Amino acid sequence: MRRNHGARAGASSELNYPGIGSTENREPPEGFKCTVSQAYLGDGLPLYRRVAQGILTWQLQKRSGLRTRTDSDTVVPGARVVSGFGVGPFRINAPCEVVWVHQPVPGGGPQSAGFGYGTLPGHPVLGEEAFEVEVDGQGRVVLKITAFSRPSNWFYALGSAVAGRAQRHVTSRYIGSAHELAAGES
């Protein structure tokens, strides 16, 4: 598979976990739980490009129902995003920084586009999550979400079962958002 290795952000002193950029090569650091979720979205380069555009303009997060604040309209290395979930006093903010980006390449053929971001202080977990869309040689388009994490402190460790369910729920919302992007829904 041809890879567009895009730019990689320099290691920020605020990123708070080992193995910065590890979702790019799918090698989580020792002691971190890693999950990979995949969803078939359809076929064809136009579909791939629509989803890639949506991923690289934060639409996956915004359409998933998360309250999303960013310092950049597009995903670029070093961009900061804060996603919030919950209600009122039970709202949890999850600050992250983009650590790597792959842009779509011109032409056809197998390729992938997406990005990975890592946690900043204040996030309920330590780790990284990546969102990629891939098109293979037969034109099949697949969304891949890779994450490695562990609770950021004892309080969140106590609620790790709840956090796991929340992460699965948000991942399912990301997949739903990718299906909307694939279908060209505005």
Please give a structural write-up.
- The chain has 186 residues and is of the alpha+beta class.
- The chain has one domain (22-183): 2-Layer Sandwich (Alpha-D-Glucose-1,6-Bisphosphate, Chain A, domain 4).
- The protein is 26% helix and 34% strand.
- The protein contains five helices and seven strands, in the order αβααββββββαα.
- Helix 2 packs across helix 5.
- The model is unreliable at 1-12 (pLDDT under 50).
Short descriptors:
186 residues, alpha+beta, Alpha-D-Glucose-1,6-Bisphosphate, Chain A, domain 4, 7 strands, 34% strand
Strand-helix topology:
Elements: H1 22-25, E1 33-43, H2 45-55, H3 59-63, E2 67-70, E3 80-85, E4 92-102, E5 111-119, E6 125-135, E7 140-151, H4 154-158, H5 160-183
Antiparallel strand pairs: 1-7, 2-3, 3-4, 4-5, 5-6, 6-7
Q: Can you tell me the number of structural domains?
A: 1
CATH top-level class: Alpha Beta
The CATH topology assignment is: Alpha-D-Glucose-1,6-Bisphosphate, Chain A, domain 4
Assembly type: single chain
Unreliable stretches (pLDDT < 50, length at least 5) are: 1-12
> Which sequence of SSEs, written as H and E, runs from N to C?
HEHHEEEEEEHH
Strand percentage: 25-35%
Can you give the mean pLDDT? 82
Question: Order of strands in the sheet with the most strands?
Answer: 1-7-6-5-4-3-2
CATH architecture: 2-Layer Sandwich
Number of helices: 5
Terminal CA distance: 30 Å
Summarize the main sheet.
7 strands, antiparallel
What is the overall shape? globular
Overall structural class, as computed from helix and strand content, comes to alpha+beta
CATH homologous superfamily title: START domain
| Helix share bin | 25-40%
Count of extended strands: 7
